[in-house]
Inverse folding.
């Protein structure tokens, strides 16, 4: 009898990605086939926003051409079809991250997902004080004396919502610091998390340092403290296999526009029992069971957190992006991007006057590198590279506290994806090597 190959078996059987395959992949991305300032575009800003393959563009276009209608409303043919493809998309994305259907909530982006959790937790305290909800809700409520813990490397989206939650509830915000190299001080983490810690939020992979954090170790500390664990997966879900149940996090968020999908769509994962216990964040139509003039009763998750008309076409396109990445093989994508990241870091470290943030060459990181050019502002570096057709990100990358800790105000960041070749990286390194000469530093 023939052996049946599972998806994981098939992925292991596939050869590692190489430049020849990447060049074929690039044919799926029409935006990459253009000149910028007379040079072929080298797009190294996927950490901010990735490009879209034709299959994703066509999935959204096909919805508008064939099935455009409001979902969960009406019994006519288009409404039924629209609802089916919309909810099929939810199932696809849930499987992509190892979640269940009811644990997958559509948001506009990861920032909205984090704010949803933050406001739901402060609403939990209000509900509990008024006798609404059950014992589980009281456990989730955040109040005076409680602690919220983040890390010093967080994106503002995974910092400010927790600052505001602390402000609204009287809780205290603490953070796990980094060392001079940018690594988390895990030797201090156990002392920072304690019996009063209600929530631990951290990034899976840093959008500045490229660091892949020790998720299992952090989750274990959170469990020991009895805290909810929130994972910012914006820089991991697009680039490496993600299994939210296997990691045992309570919540996870990511944005579609960083993983080949359109803007305006994101995902919040939450354990079903927690989502169903929490009060909603936004209220209105489509998330209720019964409404009187005095009060309303709410649906269980995921609809509980999806008030109003949803991002229908974007969700369908996100599912197409998830399928594209699954068919390519996320483990293969991760290995290829790691190779590109190592090539970037080792090349940058060899250029005089360059300081690279995060793990040194040879140490694990995702496929991005942020760096400082001695004597040249990051914005000038970015414009110099753009004049040569190379797109990178400049600024503090929504991580001012991290930059301040490392003695910087801004850096230049190059971030690769599955459509980048080693030639792209080499063109980038060649250009960076001429920056200080050009500016006469």
């Amino acid at each position: 009898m023939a052996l049946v190959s599972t998806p994981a078996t098939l992925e292991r059987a596939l050869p590692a990605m190489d430049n020849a395959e990447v060049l074929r992949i690039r044919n799926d991305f029409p935006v990459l086939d253009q000149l910028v300032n007379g040079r072929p575009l080298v797009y190294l800003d996927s950490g901010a926003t990735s490009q879209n393959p034709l299959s994703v563009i066509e999935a959204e276009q096909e919805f508008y051409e064939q099935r455009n209608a409001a979902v969960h409303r009406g019994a006519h043919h288009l409404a039924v079809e629209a609802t089916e493809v919309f909810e099929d998309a939810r199932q696809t994305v849930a499987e992509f991250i190892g979640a269940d259907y009811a644990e997958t909530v559509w948001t506009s982006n990861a920032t909205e997902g984090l704010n949803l959790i933050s406001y739901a937790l402060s609403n939990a305290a209000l509900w509990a004080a008024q006798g609404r909800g059950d014992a589980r809700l009281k456990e989730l409520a955040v109040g005076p004396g409680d602690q919220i813990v983040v890390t010093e490397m967080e994106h503002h989206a995974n910092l400010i919502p927790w600052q505001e939650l602390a402000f609204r509830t009287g809780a205290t915000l603490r953070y796990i610091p980094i060392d001079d190299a940018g690594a988390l001080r895990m030797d201090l983490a156990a002392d920072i998390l304690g019996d009063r810690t209600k929530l631990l939020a951290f990034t899976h992979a840093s959008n500045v340092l490229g660091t892949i954090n020790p998720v299992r170790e952090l989750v274990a500390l959170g469990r020991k403290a009895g805290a909810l664990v929130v994972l910012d997966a914006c820089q991991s879900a697009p680039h490496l296999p993600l299994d939210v149940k296997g990691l045992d996090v309570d919540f996870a968020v990511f944005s579609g526009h960083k993983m080949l999908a359109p803007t305006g769509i994101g995902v919040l994962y939450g354990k079903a029992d927690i989502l169903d216990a929490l009060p909603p964040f936004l209220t209105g139509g489509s998330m209720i069971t019964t409404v009187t003039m005095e009060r309303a009763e709410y649906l269980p998750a995921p609809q509980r957190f999806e008030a109003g008309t949803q991002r229908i076409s974007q969700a369908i396109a996100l599912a197409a992006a998830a399928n594209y990445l699954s068919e390519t093989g996320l483990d293969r994508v991760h290995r290829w991007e790691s190779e590109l990241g190592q090539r970037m870091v080792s090349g940058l470290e060899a250029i005089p006057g360059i300081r690279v943030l995060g793990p040194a060459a040879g140490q694990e990181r995702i496929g991005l590198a942020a760096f400082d050019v001695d004597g040249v502002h990051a914005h000038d570096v970015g414009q110099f590279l753009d004049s040569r057709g190379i797109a990178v990100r400049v600024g503090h990358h929504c991580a001012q506290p991290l930059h301040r800790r490392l003695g910087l105000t801004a850096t230049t960041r190059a971030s690769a994806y599955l459509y980048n070749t080693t030639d792209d990286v080499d063109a980038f390194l060649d250009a960076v090597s001429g920056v200080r000469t050009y500016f006469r530093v």
Q: What stands out?
A: Residues 1-11 have pLDDT under 50 and may be disordered. The first strand starts at residue 35 and ends at 36. DSSP finds 17 helices and 17 strands in the chain. The domain at 65-326 is CATH 3.40.640.10 (Aspartate Aminotransferase; domain 2).
